[in-house]
Amino acid sequence: MMQKTLFDKIWEAHEVNQLDDGSSVFYIDQHYIHEVTSPQAFSGLRQRGVEVFRPKQTIATADHNVPTQNQHLPIKDPASAAQLLTLSQNCSEFGVSLFDLEHKWNGIVHVIGPELGLTQPGMTVVCGDSHTSTHGAFGAIAFGIGTSEVEMVLASQALMLNKPKSMKIEVKGDLNPGVSAKDLALYLISELGTDGGTGYFVEYCGSAIRKLSMESRMTLCNMSIEMGARGGLIQADEITFDYLKDLEFTPKGEEFDNMLERWRELKTDEGALFDISYSFDADHILPMITWGTNPGMAIPLNSTIPDPVRSDGSPHKEFLSAMNYMDLAGGESMLGKPIDYVFLGSCTNGRIEDLREFAKYVKGHKKADTVTVWIVPGSRKVMEQAISEGIEDALQLAGFELREPGCSACLAMNEDKIPPGKYCVSTSNRNFEGRQGPGSRTFLASPKTAALAAINGWIAV
Amino acid sequence: MSFNPIKRIVSPAVLLPLDHVDTDQIIPARFLKATSREGFGKHLFSSWRYQKNEEPDPEFVLNGKNGKGEILLVGENFGCGSSREHAAWALHDYGFRVVVAKSFADIFRGNAMNNGIVPVELKLAEHEELLNYIRKNPEAELMLDLPSETIQVKGSDKLKFNFVINPFRKECLTMGTDLVDSLITRKEEISQFEQNRKQK
Description:
The structure holds two protein chains of two kinds.
Chain A: H1 6-13, E1 15-18, E2 24-27, E3 30-34, H2 39-48, E4 58-61, H3 78-94, E5 97-99, H4 109-115, E6 124-127, E7 141-144, H5 147-156, E8 158-161, E9 165-172, H6 181-192, E10 200-205, H7 207-210, H8 214-222, E11 231-233, H9 238-244, H10 253-265, E12 276-281, E13 288-290, E14 298-300, H11 317-326, E15 341-344, H12 346-349, H13 352-362, E16 372-375, H14 380-388, H15 391-397, E17 423-426, E18 441-444, H16 447-456
Parallel strand pairs in A: 3-4, 3-6, 4-5, 6-7, 9-10, 9-12, 10-11, 15-16, 15-17, 17-18
Antiparallel strand pairs in A: 1-2, 2-8, 13-14
Helix pairs in contact in A: 2-5, 6-8, 13-15, 13-16
Chain B: E1 8-16, H1 23-26, H2 46-49, E2 71-74, H3 86-94, E3 98-101, H4 106-113, E4 118-121, H5 124-136, E5 141-145, E6 150-153, E7 160-162, H6 167-175, H7 179-184, H8 187-199
Parallel strand pairs in B: 1-2, 2-3, 3-4
Antiparallel strand pairs in B: 1-5, 5-6, 6-7
């Protein structure tokens, strides 16, 4: 029998049919939607006069376009308010469950799905959001889709897809102390490039991956899209099963034990072939930060910005353009660089582990006067846990405030915008031009680096 | 979404030969609050296209004399980043029906085809040859012929290049139909799949 990868196995189990041209009608187990990429899909259903085919397999949340303060008050921006109202009307008209603002399960779609136990090993998971790759941390095939595809899933619980190629990324050994999953992700993207994964679906493996917590695995899988891969997954193991046990939507009792038996079978066979394989040594990886305008422009924190002139004397146009936008020069050191804002949050680093990490480094210190800091939990559950663990108190003592959940300054659709020309150390996933607000300048980094920047006022180790 | 069928497109090319143009540049997030698919064209490449006072930036290609057409020529990894289909809606609303690139990001490629935009991926050397020709002859018309999967400088058989597109997607584009309708007709088959799975 031919050896198969974990990806092959899940893929084949969800092929409804193979078409003549090689593409597949592909079944979706879990569909998540949010206010920004779903309204046009529901309008499409209405125009076609069709219902949602499997309403119980879609879960909605409000996250991209919500304020992170005073969520109990009416939303000030009329366009944002209208978009949230549209989501709520669509969900009630089509029978989809919605965790809207103030719902105890509200939060960023890629934080709530996992923490409620909706995402499980072996599933296929999609959402109209590229960071759906996050859910791959559970040994699921999870990827972002466009709004037309949201409409397809609503209408048929399926998509028409060509199977991506497979990529194996093995990380051997142990990560050094102080090196997080975020540093690992930025390192891999800087090595493979922002399109190194285009056309591929990644499986992360190796001892360094096996030791990661579920939160860290989610951070890593979340950033798969930043190297162009549609998604990345990690074989489920005891760490996964411990995390899933007793969550709201995880099967209980005997049913859970039966699922466990199935989940334990879900792994890549020994000797299974990948289209391409990479191997990295964990002890080569250092804390990372981006200096430029895509996530691949990342360097170790203690190193200098690369030379924009290539060894053959030709200019590196992309580097020059990024340096111009960021107002930085080749050879400059990142350490000591003054910054104006710090953002802790997003589907990349807005989980309880990230808040704990941030709190650990700011405890006993004071927020730098020159820095504005936004600490945005990924969900209401994360927020409540941070309060009950005393993290909020510790943050307040150090001069910080815990806000309410949402995507916030990761994409700056709400009022949490970094002003033009200002520098932000951000735990989010994209440092594109204007991503955090028109003219904003982003340094992507880990929660630890964000904490140290918040108390020092500059990039520090 | 319905769009006009595409078989042949003849148009001058608009040149934006940058690499890694992300969907945040194609349509910034602040314009994503709309709940319809219409009207995004005026915000296409907004941060590059308009100055701080919201006046058009004369330096940006869309504001120049070769800034209008149905064919956009870009660099590699076009449409990376966010899955927002608003990027495809904005390009289509502005008038683009074809994007010629060295490569595309996966999600964008699908979004484009679902909205009546043909993604044409050329080999690096051919892309360069075409780009150099258009730089020298900015008024030159390109011709896309979808059935034969070719794009060429109109009237020149020397500058004629093949590209590849999924056959079913090609059929949808040439018919102006979309995958939603096709999947709706398969609901029975999908229900059967669900039943079979339960019994396993």
